[in-house]
Please model this.
Amino acid sequence: MKNSVFSRPKSAFLVIFALLLSFSAFSQNNSNTNSQGSDFWQYVRFGGGLGLGFANGVFSATVAPSAIYDFNTQFSAGVSLNYTYFNDDDFFKSTIVGGSFIGLFNPLPEIQLSSEFEYLHVSRNFEDPIFEDDNYWQPAVFFGIGYTTNNITVGIRYNVLHDDDKSIYADALVPFFRVYF
Model:
């Protein structure tokens, strides 16, 4: 557990804070029910992301379905799954699988604040035997801000646990594009 995120007090505090913020929306009471029972699914929105990229021998594909529950007009929380395949013909192949918990807060209809805990398993297989293949779990805690219009939010998020050697993201600041229907 020497290299665990929880072995560093500051990182552990940030992970716990993000999880509490993400799940604080669960404490919001929504007592709207119809005469035939709960209308839970009326407040669930689905979305996610798809990605496809290729250039100069590099291919990348991502599928990331997501669902959130709107507790009210300001608070939402949900889960997401992630699968990414990356292939650089001359260097390595990588498979990334995992998921995340997300909490959303809209202080104004146009402004969205978010916290997200993401946990991904990364498997990298190098073509050159000089490099050692990797298999590891990579946590990320993001805090973000975005602009919302209709079902679309565009913004930026910051990974407080960014690790230059292990992170699948090139930088701690990561732009995002969210769509929920």
Observations:
- The two ends are 41 Å apart (CA to CA).
- The first strand starts at residue 33 and ends at 34.
- The chain has a mean pLDDT of 84.
